[in-house]
Amino acid sequence: MKTHGFRLPAVINRILFTGAFAILLLVVLAACTKAQVVVDEIPVPETLTCVECELIDVIEVVDANTLSTSIGDIRLYGAYVLDQPADCASQAQERLRVLAGGQVRIEPGPVDTIRQARNHYYIFDSDGRSIEEQLIREGLALSWSQDGQHVGWFLFRVAAAQENESGCLWRGWQAFQRGEPSEFRIPGLTYPDSSAK
Known about the structure:
The protein is α+β, with helices and mostly antiparallel strands and 197 residues long. The chain has six helices and seven strands, in the order αββββαββαβααα. The strands form two sheets. Strands 1-2-3-6-5 form a five-stranded mixed β-barrel. It has a two-stranded antiparallel sheet with strand order 4-7.
């Protein structure tokens, strides 16, 4: 005995399929939108911090890149200061002295660094805020760009310092980029009047 099933016309089948597909698409889009909102709510820190890093005593600031400490001489890992312009190096050394105070926190750089010396550390103040980042923000230091776990962070800060013409290193940078006369002095080059600026 043959049974005859009920079949909807093809047009209605297409409408139902299209409607079901549209509802599925809306559900997926709603889920993606909700996921995007969650991602957007992740807080971005204002500054690089390391409150759990090892705390050591500072004996003296040797130069704008080096601290004499209770574990020996250590050098900045994420940032560096050039000797020229000399007035910028002098300002950076004084600022390092103020920011370091009597104690700093240190974080080792990567084990597989291309640097020869092993006495380079990321340096933080006693409260855990990055001293190197502060020097870069203030236009007193450049970022080490070859390696390191925080290299992207510091390169971003250098770009912001250039954009804002921050401090001694980047004064007149925008005009220089446009080929106009400016006070900008290329870091590393000796200028006759560098101590006067």
